[in-house]
Amino acid sequence: MLVGERRELLLARLTAEGKVLAKDVAAELGVSEDSIRRDLRDLAAAGLCQRVYGGALPVSPAVADYASRAGIAVDGKDRIAAVAAGLVRPGSTVILDGGTTTLAVAKALPRDLEATVVTHSPTVAVALLDHAGIEVFLLGGRLFRHSAVTCGAAAAEAAQSVSADVFLLGVTGVHPEAGLTTGDAEEAAMKRTLARRAADTYVLASAEKIGAASRFTVLPFADVAGVITDSGDQNVQELADLGVPILRA
Q1: pLDDT digit string (tens) for 124-170?
Q2: What is the average per-residue pLDDT within 103-113?
Q3: CA 73, 77, 79, 80: dihedral to nearest 10 degrees?
Q4: Which of 1, 101, 139, 146 could form a disulfide with 158 if both were Cys (CB 3.0 to 4.6 A apart)?
Q5: How high is the mean pLDDT of the chain?
C-alpha cells in the first residue's frame, strides 16, 4: 500500500470508528508502528487529526477561527444555550466563558433577569448590554483573538477576586479518554482558573465537539458538575458510564 493510500485509510478509520490505534493498524497492514506514527504525525501537522498516546482522535472543528465557528452547529448551540441559561438563577453570579456557544447563552438569558455575569469575553459582555438587570464584570488582559477572550497574568489575577455560583465552560473537545481539551495552553490555564472561582462548572458541548480532541487538557471530568450536549453519540453514553452527569439539550 502506498503512503498516500495508507493515510487515506487512516482518515477513513477515524471517521468510521472515531479513533485510530497505531498498533492495531500496523498489524493489520503489515507495517511497522513507526510508519503509522509518522503518518499520524504528518496528518496532525496538516490539521487532519489529533495525536494521542497510542494513536489519534478526530480533530475538533472548534479549533477554526472565531468567525468560522459562528456558523457551525448553530441549532445545537441554541438548544444547549437554552438549557445552560436555565442554570442561571435570579440573584446568582455566573462566569461565562468565551466562544460562540457561551455567546448564545448570553443571548438566551431572560431580558428581565437580575444577576451578575463575570466574563473574559468582550463579545459576551457586549451581548448583555440590553439586559438592564444584569451586572456585567469584564476581566481585562491580553486578547486571545481565536476565541475573542482575555488571557494571561492580568486576566488570571483579576479572576482571583471572583466568587461565582456557576461557571459555564466552553471547550473544543470532549472525549471519554482524552478528556476536556482546548487548542491553546494559555487559554486552558485561564479556563482552569475560572473553574476554581465557581461552586459548579458545567461544560457546553455541541455535537461536533463530542468524540473530538485538542492538544491541551482543561479539567478532569471529576471537576465538573455536568456536560450539556445535544449529541446522541456513543461517546456520550461512555461519559455517562464514567459517572459524568449529562444534561440533554
Answers
A1: 999 999 999 999 999 999 998 878 899 999 999 999 999 999 999 99
A2: 95
A3: 140
A4: 139
A5: 91
CA distance 191 to 214: 15
Q: Which pairs from 188-193 meet CB under 8 Å and 24+ separation?
A: 188/216, 188/217, 188/218, 189/151, 189/156, 190/120, 190/149, 190/150, 190/151, 190/152, 190/155, 190/156, 190/159, 191/97, 191/218, 191/219, 192/218, 192/219, 193/156, 193/159, 193/160
Q: State CA 70 to chain mean position distance.
A: 14
Cell numbers found for residue 80: 444547549
If we measure between CA atoms, which residue out of 247, 161, 163, 160 comes closest to residue 206? Answer: 247
The DSSP symbol for 199 reads E
Sign of the dihedral defined by the CA atoms of residues 248, 225, 154, 188, in that order:
negative
78 backbone dihedrals φ, ψ, rounded to 5°? -65, -40
The predicted structure's pLDDT at residue 48: 85
Joined together, the cell numbers standing for residue 93 give 453570579
* Burial 135-166, CB ≥16 within 10 A → b, else e: ebebbebeebebbbbbbbeebbebbeebebbb
